[in-house]
C-alpha cells in the first residue's frame, strides 16, 4: 500500500519538478541569448557614435572624398535605425565595408595618417571591432547552447508546449562572405 501511494503521489510530483526545472532552464538560457544580443547592440552603438567624429576628422583632409564619407554616414544611419537583429547585422556589414574603404582612402593622406585625432579614433574603432567580434562569438555560443537545449528530448516537448523558438545565429550572407575576402576598391 505504501509503495502504491508513493508511486501515485511521487511520480506526478517528480514529473512536475522536472517540468518546472526544464522550463526554468530554458528561460534562463533564452535570457542569456537576449543579454548577448544586447551586448552586440551596445558595441554597435559605440562604434556608430565614433563614426561622426572620424568622418569630421577625415573631411578636413579629404574634402573631395565625399562619396566615401556619404557611404559611411549612410551605413551608420542604417545601423542606428535597425529594428531587428538581422537588420542590424546587415547594416553593420555595410558599415564595416564603408570603413574599410575610408581607411584605405586615409592611406593616401600622410598628414591624416599622422593626425593624433585620427589615430585615436582609428584605435578606438579597432578596439570596438574586436569587442563586436567577441560579442558575436559569445552570442553564437549561447545561442548554440540554447538551441541545443531546445532540441534535446524531452526538452523539445516542453519547449514546443511553451512556445520557445530557436535563436538566430549571426552569420554572413554569401555576398558578405565574398565581399569580406576582397580588398576594398578605391577609385580616384
Secondary structure layout plus pairing:
Layout: H1 2-61, H2 66-81, H3 85-106, H4 110-114, H5 116-151, H6 155-161, H7 174-180
Describe the structure.
There is one protein chain. The protein is mainly α. The protein has a single domain (39-180), classed as Up-down Bundle (de novo design (two linked rop proteins)). 81% of the residues lie in helices and 0% in strands. It has seven helices and no strands. It has helices at 2-61, 66-81, 85-106, 110-114, 116-151, 155-161, 174-180. Helix 1 runs antiparallel to helix 2, helix 1 packs parallel to helix 3 (85-106) and helix 2 (66-81) packs antiparallel against helix 3. The longest helix has 60 residues, at 2-61. It is rod-shaped. It starts with a helix and ends in an 8-residue tail after the last helix. Mean pLDDT is 80; it is low at 183-188.
What is the N-to-C succession of helices and strands? HHHHHHH
Query: Can you tell me the CATH architecture?
Result: Up-down Bundle
Could you tell me how far the N terminus lies from the C terminus, measured between alpha carbons in angstroms? 91 Å
Nearest-integer average pLDDT = 80
The major sheet is characterized as:
none
The residue fraction in helices comes out at over 70%
CATH superfamily assignment? LemA-like domain
Total count of domains: 1
Q: What is the approximate shape?
A: rod-shaped
Low-confidence stretches: 183-188
Cα-based radius of gyration, to the nearest Å: 24 Å
CATH class: Mainly Alpha
Counting copies of identical and different chains, the oligomeric state is single chain
Could you tell me the strand content as a percent range?
A: under 5%
In total, how many beta strands?
Answer: 0
Secondary structure category = mainly alpha
CATH topology: de novo design (two linked rop proteins)
In DSSP terms (H or I, runs of 4 or more residues), the helix count works out at: 7
Amino acid at each position: 500500500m505504501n509503495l502504491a501511494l508513493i508511486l501515485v503521489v511521487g511520480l506526478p510530483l517528480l514529473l512536475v519538478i522536472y517540468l518546472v526545472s526544464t522550463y526554468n532552464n530554458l528561460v534562463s538560457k533564452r535570457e542569456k541569448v537576449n543579454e548577448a544580443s544586447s551586448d552586440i547592440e551596445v558595441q554597435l552603438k559605440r562604434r556608430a557614435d565614433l563614426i561622426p567624429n572620424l568622418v569630421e576628422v577625415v573631411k578636413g583632409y579629404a574634402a573631395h572624398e565625399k562619396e566615401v564619407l556619404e557611404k559611411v554616414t549612410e551605413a551608420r544611419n542604417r545601423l542606428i535605425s535597425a529594428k531587428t537583429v538581422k537588420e542590424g547585422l546587415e547594416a553593420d556589414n555595410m558599415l564595416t565595408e564603408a570603413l574599410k574603404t575610408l581607411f584605405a582612402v586615409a592611406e593616401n593622406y600622410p598628414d591624416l595618417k599622422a593626425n593624433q585625432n585620427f589615430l585615436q579614433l582609428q584605435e578606438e574603432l579597432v578596439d570596438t571591432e574586436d569587442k563586436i567580434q567577441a560579442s558575436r562569438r559569445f552570442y553564437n555560443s549561447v545561442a548554440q547552447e540554447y538551441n541545443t537545449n531546445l532540441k534535446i528530448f524531452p526538452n523539445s516537448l516542453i519547449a514546443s508546449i511553451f512556445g520557445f523558438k530557436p535563436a538566430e545565429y549571426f552569420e554572413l550572407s554569401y555576398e558578405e562572405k565574398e565581399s569580406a575576402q576582397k580588398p576594398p576598391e578605391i577609385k580616384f
